[in-house]
Design a protein that fits this description.
The complex is a heterodimer of chains A (78) and B (430). Chain A is of the alpha+beta class. Chain A is 27% helix and 32% strand. Chain A contains 2 helices and 4 strands. In chain A, strand 3 and strand 4 form a beta hairpin. The radius of gyration of chain A is 12 Å and the shape is globular. Chain B has 430 residues and is mainly alpha-helical. Chain B has one domain: Cytochrome C Oxidase, Chain A, CATH 1.20.210. Chain B is built from 15 helices and no strands. In chain B, helix 8 runs antiparallel to helix 9. The longest helix of chain B has 44 residues. Chain B is globular. The chains are: A alpha+beta (78), B mainly alpha (430). At the A-B interface, helix 1 and helix 2 of A face helix 1, helix 4, helix 8 and helix 12 of B.
């Protein structure tokens, strides 16, 4: 089993990126993280991740795209 | 905890914006139908009671109702800062705009002070809480999407001034207080409403939604950095000039300044759209292109409306209003609705049901592109027939106006289809 599921959703029509990343979150194994590549920052996704108890880290790239790493929130995070 | 992380929990329920979106098309229908018997009046000039009434049915009833609904969602989604007390604010906007727009329009068209009073009261109930909540949201907004946040802040100022001037002018017309400089304040009300609020919001929102929804490269940095501030500075200068120098000179300076800014924005948008990543047919894109073409047309046509000899000037000003309001604003708003409503219906359904991909209708199924395209065709045909109306015998405007009314009905039916699918798959509106 790989440690992460890559979802390259750059330049897909909305809401396909969100459909794909939610699908990946749904089928990931315990401990596995999801790496989402997207052409913009997915504001609506963040609230959904929080609701699902997942943590995320976002990193912008020079070309205007973003990498969002999604995994289980550490217990101490409120 | 980031502000952006709050976005989903504090986003309003789908019913809040959707109710506003679903009443708006009816004001387009009513405006188009009311314009048929009054065509002899409104085609004669923008100061006629019929033209004033119809303008407010289109701007308040259709455009502002949609824009208010869209902002309820866009503030959390685009700039990560929800409106406080969004449910009561949305209900007041719904009731206030739904009642106030037709009452004010009827009061202006018929010259009846009691209708004006009631309309102004309802509109104050709609806008004042909206402005206060909007100010809180914009003040709290984090620095992400700074260009859009700046555009929205400027648009807030434009809305506040438009509402303030509108209440002052309307109250004066209703006999509540004496009006000083009514012509000057009416010019400012129109300029801030159409350019400071409507165009400014479209510019600010375009920076985000054109690249996001049409998969284009981002807007050029000089534009996102300067255009909204340039528009604001131009409006401030135009406002001062209106009181200080002859109106014709202020109009010439205004045309040069606003014309250059508007042409720049429309050119940049069309150029980006030509460089989009996916080259599939897209009705939203075509609505936007029509809107941008109408911005260019407005800039090119404005000299005739501003400086033509007397018998040409009045009908030309009506044509200019039609190009800007029906050609630009109604088109861009319709194009946005065909993305916003399917997205929200899908997004809320997904969030509420936690459905796996493929088990609920996707965006393209919520409102099929073919249905939106029927609206585009009706809208385009209506526009082409209505634009020359001020220069033709009044009865010749009827076919175009009937098509415009039909386009409003088709828009409502398309939006309502998304609502019905949402409910059918177990979505909750509130």
């Amino acid at each position: 089993m790989t440690t992460e599921i890559l979802v390259d959703a750059r330049w897909l029509d909305p809401p396909e990126p969100m459909e794909r990343v939610l699908d990946a979150i749904g089928r990931r194994a315990p401990g596995q993280r999801v790496r989402l590549l997207l052409h913009r920052e997915p504001m609506p996704l963040y609230g959904m991740l929080r609701q699902m108890g997942l943590a995320h880290r976002t990193r912008p790239f020079d070309d205007g795209c973003y990498e969002i790493l999604i995994d289980d929130a550490p217990d101490e995070v409120p | 905890m980031s502000q952006a992380g709050l976005a989903f929990e504090q986003a309003p329920p789908l019913g809040a914006p959707l109710r506003l979106f679903l009443i708006a098309p009816w004001f387009l229908v009513i405006a188009a139908l009311a314009a048929i018997p009054s065509a002899g009046d409104w085609t004669a000039g923008r100061w006629t009671p019929a033209a004033l009434g119809l303008t407010h049915l289109l701007t308040l009833g259709f455009l502002d109702t949609v824009m208010a609904g869209a902002l309820l969602q866009m503030l959390p989604v685009l700039i990560g800062s929800p409106l406080p007390q969004v449910r009561p604010v949305a209900w007041l906007a719904y009731g206030g705009l739904g009642l106030g727009s037709p009452l004010l329009a009827a009061g202006l068209a018929l010259g009846r002070p009691p209708l004006l009073d009631a309309g102004l009261l309802a509109l104050a109930v709609a806008w004042l809480p909206f402005l206060v909540a909007g100010a809180v949201s914009l003040a709290r907004a984090p620095a992400v999407a700074a260009a859009t946040r700046a555009g929205m802040r400027h648009a807030w100022l434009g809305l506040a001034l438009t509402v303030g001037l509108g209440l002052y002018l309307g109250g004066g017309l209703a006999g509540l207080w004496p009006l000083a400089s009514p012509v000057e304040f009416t010019r400012l009300h129109a300029a801030w409403g159409l350019l400071g609020w409507l165009l400014m919001l479209v510019v600010g929102v375009a920076y985000q939604v054109v690249p996001m929804l049409q998969l284009t490269p981002p807007y050029p940095a000089p534009m996102t950095r300067w255009l909204a501030s340039l528009l604001l500075a131009l409006l401030a200068a135009y406002s001062a000039q209106t009181f200080l120098i002859e109106h014709a000179t202020a109009d010439l300076a205004g045309w040069l300044g606003f014309g250059a800014a508007i042409a720049w924005f429309a050119f940049a948008t069309l150029r980006l759209q030509n460089r989009r990543r996916r080259r599939l047919p897209d009705t939203t894109l075509d609505f936007w292109r029509l809107a941008m073409a109408c911005l260019w047309l407005a800039v090119l046509f404005a000299p005739l409306a501003l400086f033509a000899p007397e018998p040409w000037r009045d009908p030309s000003q009506v044509v200019l209003g039609l190009v800007f309001i029906v050609g630009f604003a109604v088109s861009v708003v319709a194009g946005m609705l065909y993305k916003i409503v399917p997205f929200l219906a899908w997004f809320h359904l997904q969030a509420q049901t936690g459905a796996r991909a493929g088990t609920i209708p996707n965006m393209k199924e919520m409102i099929p592109d073919a249905a939106a395209r029927r609206h585009l065709m009706l809208h385009l045909a209506a526009l082409l027939l209505v634009l020359p109306a001020p220069f033709l015998p009044a009865w010749l405007s009827a076919p175009g106006l009937l098509l415009l009314a039909a386009s409003g009905y088709v828009l409502w039916r398309n939006l309502d289809q998304a609502r019905r699918l949402f409910l059918q798959y177990g979505g909750r509106l509130d």
